[in-house]
Design a protein that fits this description.
- With 449 residues, the chain is an all-alpha fold.
- The chain has 18 helices and no strands.
- 48% of the residues are buried.
- The N terminus is likely disordered.
């Protein structure tokens, strides 16, 4: 590519190809950002359950807010159902957690470009820290639920922002982000359980977790090596604005006719990223991009619908009374193995890429149908087989997530890529929300038997 020595340094688009150390820094930075973005969400849910238990005598809804952790230690808490049901489906807290994220992902992509990335990361870190503080010092149910909402807002805004951010870096950082988000589930569950197991109170454990939002800030502001085109603290300018800037006017005024032509040509076409040249996307263009994303969003949403229908509608009902693990322990291992599967497959992008996203969706639907019939007719012989199926479920879900965004990045025009990555993130949240709604009648039906 032709270079012009008279183009200001801040207008030169430097690709993220500064050597192995930069690639490693950026991969590690996105891994930590993925971990921190989902970590607060995972840990805070379990902590909310523990703290809400203390408020149970003051407000009966506390038990509803903590159902994600599912306390079966009291045995059958609702009726004489053979499924040993909890009074309320675990889908109740799922909806409370996912709806704020869904609303953000539906509307934020149309306006979020007006907020530079530095401010977004600060906002997400503050929201995550606030969620920890609200739940740890909660004195009423509404405070704990508000903490859940703050964590959901932080996670949802963070996900669409960091996915958009990946387009400014080399494509390998998407694998780091995916692996980090997968690691958050495993690390969050184990760390919270471990700290409380050794005798720390949930409140103290949550206050220790305040290090996570700080890690997010360090990862973004000090570990990443961003290109000069990244809109850090202000919106990126178009080439028209660049040509009209004071510095560029001085360059053009002080040059002869040939140099003027070369400088203007460079400003418009050579060293300025394509999206700077023509300005931001219009609303109509964004709708066209969304139309092209449907082939990715539908399979992703279907995978997550089947996945969370299993996790929140069926997993609690897959109980084996004669197994050596209690009901609570069986459920915890289901959740743990699911998170392990997600971690492995979200870390697999460097090794294998799967273009047939619909195949992953259909396989996950088969999983959901199999386990639905297993709950109905109880033909599975042991929890060991369920462990294998749940691990496989996590592998499918994680693979669908990272491959969806990898191929969106690869197949979308450069100018549309940043918006496309943010807009497509609604797919998993929409599937999760629909799964939560579907899980209620299923839970009610089986528990009434």
């Amino acid at each position: 590519m032709e270079q012009s020595g008279s183009v200001p340094a801040h207008l030169v688009h430097r690709p993220d190809t500064n050597g192995r150390s930069t690639l490693w820094r950026n991969w590690s930075g996105f891994w930590l950002l993925g971990l921190c973005n989902n970590f607060a969400y995972v840990v805070m849910l379990s902590a909310a359950h523990d703290i809400l238990k203390k408020q149970e005598s003051e407000n009966n809804t506390a038990s509803v807010s903590g159902t994600l952790s599912v306390d079966f230690q009291g045995g059958n808490s609702s009726n004489s159902s053979r499924y040993d049901c909890n009074p309320v489906s675990t889908a109740a807290v799922l909806l409370a957690d996912i709806l704020p994220t869904l609303v953000i992902k539906l509307f934020a992509p149309f306006v979020i470009h007006k907020m530079p990335y530095g401010f977004r990361v600060l906002f997400c870190s503050i929201m995550a820290a606030t969620s920890f503080l609200l739940v740890s010092f909660s004195s009423a149910v509404w405070m704990s639920l508000l903490g859940v909402i703050f964590a959901s807002v932080s996670s949802g805004l963070g996900e669409l922002s960091f996915l958009s951010l990946t387009v400014f870096f080399s494509r390998n950082v998407l694998g780091g982000w995916g692996s980090g988000t997968g690691g958050a589930g495993v690390a969050g569950a184990f760390l919270y359980s471990g700290l409380t197991q050794v005798g720390l109170t949930p409140r103290v454990t949550l206050l220790i977790m305040l290090v996570v939002p700080v890690m997010m800030l360090i990862s973004y502001f000090f570990l990443l090596d961003p290109p000069s085109s990244l809109p850090q603290w202000r919106n990126k300018v178009t080439a028209y604005e660049a040509v009209g800037s004071e510095e560029s006017e001085r360059l053009i005024d002080g040059a002869d006719e040939e140099e003027k032509s070369t400088t203007v040509h460079a400003l418009f076409h050579l060293n300025v990223p394509e999206e700077w040249t023509v300005g931001p996307l219009t609303f109509t263009e964004k709708l066209q991009v969304i139309k092209g994303l449907l082939k990715f969003v539908f399979p992703l949403g279907l995978v997550y619908f089947a996945e969370y229908f299993i996790n929140q509608g069926l997993m609690e009902l897959l109980y084996f009374p004669d197994f050596f693990l209690s009901h609570a322990e069986q459920y915890r291992w289901y959740q743990t193995l699911y998170q392990v599967g997600v971690l492995v497959s979200r870390s697999s992008l460097c090794c294998v890429k799967i273009r047939k996203l619909w195949a992953l969706s259909l396989l996950q639907v088969v999983n959901a149908a199999l386990l639905l019939f297993a709950v109905k007719y109880q033909f599975l012989p042991s929890a060991w087989l369920v462990f294998v199926i749940i691990l496989y479920e996590g592998l499918l879900g994680g693979a669908a997530y990272v491959n969806t965004f990898y191929f969106i990045r690869e197949e979308t025009e450069e100018r549309h890529r940043e918006f496309a990555m943010a807009a497509a993130s609604v797919g998993d949240s929409l599937g999760i929300a629909l799964a939560g709604l579907a899980a209620f009648p299923v839970h009610r039906y089986f528990c009434s038997l």
